[in-house]
Amino acid sequence: MTATDLPSLDQDLHAEMAGAKAATLARLAAAGLPVPAGIVIPVDHPDECLPAAVAEILARCPAPRGLIARSSAVSEDGTTASFAGLYTSRISPARPEALLDAIRAVRASVHHSTVTAYSQARGVIALPRMAVLVQPALRPACSGVLAAAVTDGLCTRWRIEALRGLAEPLVSGTQTGEIHTTGQGHRATVRFTVQDTIQLPGTPEELEMPPGEWVRLDPAGSVRAKIQTSDAGVLHLYTPAQLAERPVLTPDARERLLAAATTAATALGLQHIDVEWAIDPHGRLHLVQARPLTVPLTDHATAGQAAADDDQVLHGIAAAPGRGTGPTLHTGDDITGQVLICRALGPEAVPALLTGPAAVVATTGGELSHTAIITRELGIPCVTNVTTALTALLPGAVVEVDGGAGTVRPAPTVPAQRNTQDTGTLCATAVLTRALEQPVPDDGRAATLLWHDTGGPAPDLPTFGTGASHPVGVLLSGDAPVPVTVPAGYCPIRLPGFGMMLWPQDAPPPPSEIAVLGPDRRILYRRTVYR
Fold it and tell me: Does 212 fall in a domain?
C-alpha cells in the first residue's frame, strides 16, 4: 500500500478523510478564526507508512514543547453524540519513537469497547475510521471550555470554565475551573476556583529538571513556578503565590472569546456550540476544538434551590438535570438503580453508566467536564464538585440527587427505578432499534424506528400494515436530501439536527420523542425531535 498525503488545517478538509475534528478546525481557519497549525494523518493512511509520516511531521512542524496527537474520528463531535473523552489524545515529545507510539494509541482508541457501548446508547453508528491531528503543543496562560446558545449573532446564554495552563484537568473533571456565566440582565457572574497545580507542556530541558526547580511562565520571566513533577511530556507546577489571587480569565479575554464563539457558530451553522480554547502568555486566543452542543446546559435560573442552612443537604454544581433516588455505591460495575459516588469518570466508566444508575455524584469537575457531558447525553441526573461526597455519603445511604439544583439530600425510600426510565411512558415514543424484533414487543410504544446505514441499499421493510396502531419507520442520519430510495408507501420527513425519517404515508403522525431501550427494556436515552 502507498502512503496518502498529509494535509494541513489550512486546506479544505472533509470529515470522511480527515475526521470531524480536523475538518471543523479547517472550516474555522478558513473563516479567519485563530486555529493553531496542524497536520492530519488521514483515516486510510496505511499502518506500515506511519514511520514515514512521523518523519514528515517532525520536519514540517517545529515543536519546542512537544506535539499533541489528537483523535479526529469520522463519528465524533456530532449533533447528537459528542463521544466526549472516549477517544485518546496524547502529548508527546518531538521524538520519532514517542510520536509514533502516541499516533498508534490514538488510532487504536477507535476500537475501544466503550465507544461501541456509548454509540449504541446514543442511537448512532460509530464508524471505525480514525484520522489523527498532530499539532505543536500550546503552552497556554489559561485554557478551558465554552458552551453557548447563539441567537442573532450573539452568545445569549453561555458558560465558560477556565484553568491556568492546560485544560486537561478541567475536561477530565479532576479539577473544577473558574466559572463564568450569564447572570441577570445578561451580566457575567464569576465563581472563582482554587488551583494548587498547573499543567504545561515542557521543553526537553525542563522535563529533565528535578522537582523543586523553577521554570518561567511568562515571556519576561517575571513569573516563575516550581516543578512538582513531570510526566509524559507535561510539567506539573505549583501555582505561584502571585497568581493565586488573580482571576484566571480577564473580562477583556472573555469578551474576545465570546465574539470568537459567535463567529465560529455562524461559520459552522450552529445555534448551540461547544468550544475548547486557549490563551497564550502573549494574550493571543486560540480555538482548539468546536462542536455542536449536544444537550442544552442546565437551566439554573429555574432549578429548585435547597435551603442554604439545611446541613443535611450537600451542594455541588448542577451538571445534568433530573432527579434520581437510590442507595449510594462507591464502586462496582453494575450500578443499576443506585447513586454512584465517585471522583471524575473516565471513558472506562461508560459501560457501568449504561446499566442505568439512578444518578451520579462526583467530588470534582464542572458542568463542562466529560463526566457532565456524558451523563447529560445519557439522561442520568448528575451533580459534580460535591467535595465531601465520598466521606459524607456512606455506601448504602439512600439519597435523592437533583441534577438541576445541584443538591444531594437524604431520602426516606428507594423507588423501583428512576422516573425517566419508566417504560410505561412509551405511549408517545418511537423506540429506535438496529434490528426489528418479531413480533414487536408489547411494551406500550407508539412506534418502532429502524436505524439504517445510509451507505447501504434501501431498507426492505416487512409489511406490518402501515395503518395499524404500531407503525414502523426508518431513521437515517446525515444531511443528504434523500440518502436512499424511499420505499413505496413511505414519505421522507426531515428532522433538523437529527437526520431523516421515512414514515408510512397512511399512518398517524410520527411521535415527537425517540428512545433507546437497554436489554432489560429500560430507557437508556430519550430525546425530543422537532419537524
Answer: yes
